[in-house]
Design goal:
Elements: H1 4-15, E1 21-31, E2 35-38, H2 44-47, E3 55-62, E4 64-68, E5 75-78, E6 82-85, E7 91-94, E8 102-103, H3 104-107, E9 118-122, E10 127-136, E11 153-155, H4 159-175, H5 185-203, H6 213-217, H7 222-231, H8 239-246, H9 250-261, H10 265-283, H11 288-294, H12 300-311, H13 315-322
Parallel strand pairs: 1-9, 2-8
Antiparallel strand pairs: 1-10, 2-7, 3-6, 3-10, 4-5, 4-7, 6-11
Helix pairs in contact: 1-5, 4-5, 7-8, 8-9, 11-12
Length: 324
């Protein structure tokens, strides 16, 4: 894989070309136990008129929580972490203590809002503060059909960026920032900068770190094959199957992967699986056995060998070191 620092620089410079529009649209003061579910796309038309897609993020300003999408895997997040749902999939969030699952619509006032809404909800236990924002972009990176990113990931920004995010969030909360209807710095530029930082951190460790990856998502030949890999990484793909899905010859697909992405289709598949595996190992309690199945390996042993070959350590040791 690409050197991490170099990859982060390449990814950041490429991401800065993206056109993003968005806002912080509510903040929450939860107390344990709490739990809610949300279908963000139900709010898409109100938040960004004409939009059929959204990018959602939550900044955990204090405390801790878990979050999951339809696969049921719970990802933990603590103060300083940023939770990203790049396709605004239905999700659930809660605290350590089990609680009744409520719809977010029961906790929010109806749109439109003149001021930044504040949700106060929970059972009176330890407090968790969360700032929620959304963005919109037509770039293929955020096309839900391509699924170029996992449906949910949690990122702890690097130290310098984490301090900047923390200070910016504090400013937003002190200012009681206007809602998405305002053109203020807080309601527009802040979500964009936060997303660029966390995407750069997230993408710099995967095959997406390659210079041509963002361009590949818009390539009419590569995009269908990438959609297959991203949408079903658990399948035992062959180059012939990917080529058939892209409606091109096997040799042409292989040639295009190498020219644009600098790697063969199967090499890309392996790196993508390892990227997903690292996400799950870092932020969830999923077992290595279940993880192996989710990313396309017939056995825990086969996955562990592949992981160690790519990362230099076993999945268990990688998880242990990541959490120290």
């Amino acid at each position: 894989m690409t050197d991490t620092s170099t990859a982060a620089t390449v990814v950041r410079s490429t991401l800065e070309q993206l056109r993003l529009e968005g806002a912080i649209f509510f903040r929450s003061e939860f107390t344990d136990g709490f739990a809610f579910e949300s279908a963000p796309l139900e709010l898409a038309a109100a938040l960004h008129p004409g939009a059929d897609r959204l990018i959602l993020f939550h900044i955990v300003a204090a405390g801790s929580c878990w979050v999951s999408v339809d696969d049921g895997v719970r990802h933990g997040a603590e103060a300083g972490d940023v939770i990203v749902l790049p396709y605004a999939d239905r999700y659930r969030m809660g605290g350590a203590t089990p609680a009744e699952l409520l719809s977010i619509l029961r906790l929010l006032d109806p749109l439109p809002w003149n001021d930044l809404p504040v949700i106060r909800h929970g059972g009176g236990g330890d407090r968790t503060d969360v700032v929620c924002g959304y963005l919109h972009s037509e770039h293929p990176l955020f096309d839900p059909r391509l699924r170029a990113l996992p449906p949910l990931f949690v990122v702890r920004p690097p130290a310098a960026a984490a301090e900047w995010v923390r200070a910016s969030v504090e400013y937003a909360l002190r200012a009681n920032a206007p809602s998405n209807r305002s053109a203020s710095l807080v309601s527009t530029r802040l979500p964009e900068l936060v997303l660029l930082e966390v995407l750069a951190a997230h993408l710099s460790t995967g095959p997406s770190a390659d210079r041509g990856w963002l361009a590949a998502l818009g390539d009419p030949l590569l995009a269908p094959a990438l959609a297959l890999v991203h949408g079903h990484p658990e399948r035992h793909w062959t180059v012939s199957e990917l080529a058939a899905g892209a409606n091109v010859s096997r040799s042409l697909l292989d040639e295009r992967f190498r020219a644009v992405l600098g790697r063969s289709p199967i090499r890309y598949l392996t790196e993508w699986r390892m990227h997903l595996a690292q996400d799950l190992l870092a932020t969830s309690e999923i077992t290595v056995f279940e993880l192996a199945r989710r990313v396309g390996y017939a056995s825990e042993e086969a996955f562990s060998r592949a992981f160690k070959r790519e990362l230099g350590v076993s999945p268990g040791l990688w998880r242990q070191r990541r959490r120290v």
